[in-house]
Specification:
Elements: H1 3-11, E1 14-24, E2 28-36, E3 39-47, E4 51-58, E5 62-70, E6 75-79, E7 82-84, H2 91-103, E8 105-116, E9 125-136, E10 147-153, H3 154-163, H4 169-182
Parallel strand pairs: 4-9
Antiparallel strand pairs: 1-2, 2-3, 4-5, 4-7, 5-6, 5-10, 8-9
């Protein structure tokens, strides 16, 4: 059975019985009651705009990352630059803007892959880009951001993704995918 056939089979006989908006703001929260295998199940869903993440590559062996305070977890996390796509923006335009705002660089961007960040409860789809041919300019962070720009060897970022020093899911996925695609990180046995 193929993945598509499995997907059709798994999603058969699921329907929304009721959907209520519980909160509306920059994000929305809705409560869905769905008929799932002849049982009504309640799901809380966060509706979030699409977003972008950027893997900025400098000197062919460095990645430019950010150390950023994240209030939801109460600590600073090492991450790739990222942010939401504003109304009317394309993913490419948002990636260029976010890279400029967060790390103060412009460059050529290339689509890499897309991921759902937390599909169990959140609709956010993130477009991941690779940025090359970087040129420095002044960063202008948003009012709610505290950011420190960090340059790491890609191999060091890879090690941090594997050993738990990086705990941000989009960053781990991006680093591992980049290393797998471009075979640019030292391999190690677990």
């Amino acid at each position: 059975m193929t993945l598509i056939d499995n997907n059709r089979k798994l999603s058969e006989n699921i329907s929304i019985v009721e959907s209520k908006l519980a909160y509306k703001g920059d994000i929305c929260v809705r409560i869905d009651k769905i008929l799932f295998d002849q049982k009504v199940v309640t799901k809380e869903i966060v509706e979030h705009s699409k977003s972008v993440g950027i893997i900025p590559i400098a000197n062919n062996d460095e990645i430019i990352m950010i150390l950023q305070y994240r209030h939801a977890v109460g600590k600073c996390l090492l991450e790739i630059p990222a942010g939401k796509i504003e109304k009317g923006e394309s993913p490419e335009t948002a990636a260029i803007r976010e890279m400029s705002e967060e790390i103060g660089f412009s460059g050529s961007i290339f689509p890499f892959f897309q991921i759902y960040l937390a599909p169990g409860y959140d609709t956010e789809l993130m477009h991941i880009f690779i940025a090359r041919d970087l040129q420095h300019k002044k960063a202008v962070a948003d009012d709610d951001e505290r950011i420190v720009v960090k340059r790491l060897k890609i191999s060091d970022a890879y090690e941090k993704a594997l050993n738990g020093d990086i705990v941000d899911s989009k960053t781990i996925a991006s680093i591992l995918a980049y290393c797998a695609k471009f075979n640019s990180c030292k391999q190690r046995m677990l």
